[in-house]
Amino acid sequence: MANTKMAQLLFGNVDKTPEDYEIMYPDRGLNEGAKVTRFAPSPTGFLHFGSLFAAFVASKTAGDDGVFYLRIEDTDKKREVEDGVIGMVNGLKDFGIIPTEGAINATDEVGAYGPYTQSRRNHIYHAYVKSLVEQGLAYPCFMTEDEIAEIRKEQEAQKELPGIYGKYAKYRDITADEAQARIANGDEYVVRLKSPGKPDGRISFKDEVKGKVEMPENILDIVLLKKDGTPTYHFAHAVDDHLMHTTHVTRGDEWLSSVPIHLQLFYVLGFKAPKYAHISPIMKEDAETGGKRKLSKRKDPEAAVSFYAEAGYPAGAVNEYLMTIANSNFEDWRRANKTDSIDKFDFKLSKMSKAGALFDMVKLHDISKTYISTMNTDEVFDAVTAWSAEYDKELNSLIMRDTDYAKRIFSIERGNKKPRKDIGKWSEVKDYIAYFYDELFDGKYDWAENMSKDDIKAILTRYKEIYNHQSPSEDWFPQVQSLAEELGFAKSPKDYKADPDSFKGHAGDVAGVIRVAVTGRLNTPDLYSIMQTLGEDKVKERINTAIEGI
């Protein structure tokens, strides 16, 4: 009776019960073994690369048969930033991580198990706290901040566990009448859990990543509802994961120490606890100390997910990299299944590193080069167009001026058995295609050091006379070989190596001179294709300009 009176005093305006919400949020009816996972960020700043990794792991854990949803945990309004939600949503979307349910922008959601934003669920939390009060499992605590500070000092002096529990929980047995008098006096209060934990109690559970874990039982009377009536993270996540039927919680291992609290909450609420998978942080080699440290949003620009979008790393390439650090056997699988979708890989939480993966920008870039090399012309064109529209207006204007011309550029040596890997991110495209546009061509020439000015001029002067834009590709290099022999160069590198004193160089050197004259560079894709794309007039103009500049 006393507990009922206390519950009514604190939550007189709550007219629904936990049973009502159990009916409102029924079992999902998924196939046996299907997993329900979530990404549950707080909108307190940019999307961190580590958070993207956690979301990626959660989405892969759910797979095609399960549900992966986005829940916004915005109960800490002091830390919330403007447009934080849309930043999270867009950050995931940029890398192809699309939740099945949840927030889709700052105001709208999809799915039958919402609201998926915690600040819109206070009425639900209050119903469950009211039930706990009725059962004698929660109570109002009127302790002031000064009182709590004094207790903390005493506990530090006595080297005791910090927090409110046992003899320090002075309002644990407060009566409804005492609470009513304090409330009438205007005293503020929080609602605390009356922890059933024992000082010498232990819990053990199987973590899906770390294996069996044993820890001390929670004995703290943790706060369930703050003074303003909003729930703490601990309590809200337990209620939400239950009602949304979450089966697997994947999160950073900084939350591992909170598991005793969370399992206890599920126990007192009468819920079945989800399985936990605590992911080790992504580490980075510290140049200053020579050791390893966590990827830092303060020190490392690559810690922000926006860094990858701005640089132009394709979502698929980033996902490939994320999978390499998620499961070590992915790279072997990819080598054996070069063209298969990443979705066909059998991702397992149990194969994740217990120690934490090491971030490697060089490796990401190499993976991205390989990924882009497998894309077809239209895919590259569409991706570059979309990226440059936001991040490089000049590039966008050039390729949109003549889209057929741009596609011919991107098609050079694309689709070969061994495609070139010249582009690692879309921000490299402007330099890659610069010699195709006069606006970008800088007119500098990377002449080979072993070529004299006289030989360069002779090669270009003679090549201009014999150049035939209509010649088929199979005739192009034989023509260069003939030119080489005419000007004192060996027909092949083999001939030159056999008798270097008899030749100025070989046909490859001659082709290199032509390549530099047309593009300014010694290293490019297939020169014949480049000249065909540039057109006869432009090729002759470039050769004339090069001759004049010698």
What does this entry show, briefly?
The chain has 550 residues and is α/β, with parallel strands linked by helices. It has helices at 2-10, 18-24, 49-62, 84-94, 122-134, 145-158, 176-184, 233-243, 259-269, 306-311, 315-326, 330-336, 361-373, 377-391, 393-401, 403-411, 429-432, 453-466, 473-486, 493-498, 507-519, 527-534, 536-549, and strands at residues 36-39, 67-70, 101-103, 109-110, 138-141, 190-193, 202-207, 211-216, 223-225, 248-252, 275-279, 283-285, 292-294. It is elongated and about 110 Å long.
CATH superfamily of the largest domain: HUPs
Averaged pLDDT: 94
* Gross CATH architecture of the largest domain: 3-Layer(aba) Sandwich
Q: Quick one: how many beta strands?
A: 13
CATH class of the largest domain reads: Alpha Beta
The parts where pLDDT drops under 50 for at least 5 residues are: none
Helix content: 40-55%
Q: Major sheet: order of its strands?
A: 1-2-3-4
CATH topology of the largest domain: Rossmann fold
Rg on CA atoms, Å: 33 Å
Main sheet specs: 4 strands, mixed
**Which structural class matches the secondary elements?**
alpha/beta
> How many individual domains?
4
- Principal-axis shape equals elongated
Q: Compute the separation of the termini in Å.
A: 101 Å
Discrete helix count: 23
Strand content: 5-15%
